[in-house]
Design goal:
Elements lengths: L19 H21 L8 E6 L10 E6 L37 H21 L10 H28 L1 H13 L21 H22 L5 H39 L12 H16 L8 H8 L21 E8 L2 E8 L4 H26 L24 E2 L5 E2 L1 H11 L3 H10 L30 E2 L2
Antiparallel strand pairs: 1-2, 1-7, 3-4, 5-6
Helix pairs in contact: 1-3, 1-4, 2-3, 2-4, 3-4, 3-6, 5-6, 5-7, 5-9, 6-9
This protein binds benzoyl coenzyme A.
Length: 472
């Protein structure tokens, strides 16, 4: 079961050849996917050999095989984690019952919606990042961008498989629609807010991978708990790939921080822009922006949708099975922040409707660990500066704080104060223009743009001057 059938046109470990109807549906979708990839995937570089990792099996030995591949020839396919014998539903009103191999009729609409929402983010991120190849800071980073892009493409396949295999004609229509919406498009936008934002430069890309891909980790981890077993197994395998995307984000931002500190020390100044670096206050503004956009992806603090997903056994909590409560959340409460007039207060809400906030708490704690590691880099250079996460009520568009203005340190502020101060808190047009001015492509082997430090080690332990993308 672990090994993947690469003889088939669509690599898979789900015995696709045994299911002619599904095979036909996916073979019908495949050229449309490739057309979308051609139109909306990475601009340029499609004919170049890229040093990519491809999964040849879903076990530890096979899921990271490296070799040169042209992106359109990447073997996108369908890989589910190994089935767990006698898997049970671990939470909600069906707790203890065997996990479902098929979609229960009563949850068809809800599950389809969850899967479509998840699926929609994958092509969206590829669309958001499609222009970045032209301004890469190094071949190493160019290759990492493409690795992330092809894997997001595969995550789209993962959701399309579920739609085509389990939702009949509706599912096939949704699969088509996933290729028709476009990030940022006025008429047919992507479903969630963050996926309609621009990713205009590499600083934004690294921030996106750190903050927004991390939402992916937490949402996938909750879907991996699902009582619908094919969704659980699909998400479990996706999580192994997601880890690399967050590594790209954290190490990318860390390398920019490192370079800023090096320039500060070398030139004995905080004004590293003079020397072509990205200064730490600008990094802080980008953190404020990307963190706040990603916090919205968890939905409202108090949500009956989340309660219903949980009770139905469709979407669990992060590390559900490690928790020691009743896994039904009938009686308990959970602290949730909200507004009391002009004040931000914490209230105890019913645990069941607080699941979005609880997941946001897990997420914020994880983000903070990454920020601490960036601060270590700063401290090790003897620089007196601390990067922080903005308060979770800052610049929110979804939930209890959508209608108020809140400062990064968590004060509800007047519109007048917001107007006077927001330039200190969020990237300004000048900041974006400055960062944009640094985005000059560096593609010589082993070379790095001046605003970013080299990585600590190469991909798959390759040498510093390894040719990650063959441009000639
Ligand atoms: N933007 O009770 P509410 C990833 C809607 S990222 C726009 O507040 P709920 C990746 C909501 O749909 C992970 N709309 O929230 C990362 C609802 O609409 P209706 C993606 C939003 O439903 C990087 C209404 O507001 N996966 O994988 O509890 C690169 C009230 O809903 C937003 C998932 O999200 C928003 N930010 O939770 C590539 C998992 N937030 O019903 C990939 C699947 C809420 O009134 N999705 N709304 O029309 C879900 O679990 C839930 O849909 C959400 C929302 C967590 C997103």
């Amino acid at each position: 079961m672990a090994s993947i059938d690469y003889i088939e046109r669509i690599p898979n470990n789900v015995d696709l050849s045994e299911n002619r109807r599904l095979l036909r549906a996916l073979e019908d979708w495949q050229p449309k996917f490739l057309e979308w990839w051609h139109d909306m995937g990475p601009e340029g570089f499609q004919a170049k050999d890229v040093y990519l990792r491809t999964a040849t099996s879903v076990d530890a030995k096979g899921w990271a095989q490296f070799g040169y591949v042209k992106m359109p020839e990447y073997r996108w396919g369908i890989f589910l984690a190994e089935p767990e014998a006698d898997r049970r539903i671990n939470f909600g009103e069906h707790q203890g019952q065997p996990a479902w191999p098929d979609v229960p009729g009563e949850y068809r609409g809800t599950l389809r919606r969850l899967i479509v929402t998840q699926g929609d983010t994958e092509p969206a991120s590829v669309e958001q990042q499609r222009h970045l190849g032209r301004t890469c800071p190094s071949l190493y980073d160019l290759r990492n961008l493409f690795q992330v892009n092809v894997e997001e493409g595969r995550h789209l396949w993962a959701m399309v498989y579920l739609l085509d295999a389990h939702f009949g004609r509706d599912g096939r229509e949704e699969s088509e629609a996933l290729l028709q919406r476009r990030s940022g498009d006025h008429d047919k936008p992507r479903i969630l807010g963050a996926f309609n934002e621009k990713t205009p430069d590499w600083l934004s890309f690294f921030m996106f991978c750190f903050f927004t891909d991390r939402d992916g980790k937490y949402q996938l981890a909750c879907l991996a708990e699902s009582g619908f077993d094919p969704l659980s197994r699909t998400c479990r395998f996706m999580l192994t790939e997601e880890a690399h995307h967050m590594f790209v984000g954290e190490s990318g931002v860390g390398r920019i921080v490192q370079r800023a500190c090096e320039l500060m020390r070398e030139h004995k100044t905080d004004d590293v822009r003079k020397y072509g670096g990205i200064d730490l206050p600008t990094m802080q503004k980008y953190i404020n922006l990307h963190c706040s956009v990603s916090l919205d992806l968890f939905g409202s603090e108090v949500s009956t949708n989340a309660a219903n997903f949980y009770t139905a056994g469709l979407k669990g909590r992060f590390e559900e099975t490690k928790k020691t409560d009743d896994h039904r959340l009938k009686g308990g409460t959970y602290p949730v922040i909200g507004l009391d007039g002009e004040k931000i207060v914490t209230r105890q809400e019913a645990a069941l409707v607080s699941l979005n906030e609880r997941l946001r708490d897990d997420y914020v704690a994880d983000c903070q660990r990454g920020v601490n590691r960036w601060n270590e880099i700063i401290k090790n250079h003897g620089v007196d500066f601390t990067l922080t996460l903005p308060h979770r009520a800052f610049r929110r568009a979804i939930g209890a704080f959508a209608e108020v203005r809140v400062s990064p340190d968590g004060r509800v502020v007047s519109q007048a104060e917001w107007d006077a101060r927001h330039r200190d808190w969020l990237p300004t047009a000048e900041d974006e223009a400055y960062v944009g001015s640094l985005m000059q492509s560096v593609t010589e082997r082993g070379k790095m743009a001046n605003w970013i430090a080299p990585p600590a080690r190469g991909v798959n332990s390759q040498a510093e001057d390894f040719e990650y993308v063959r441009l000639t």
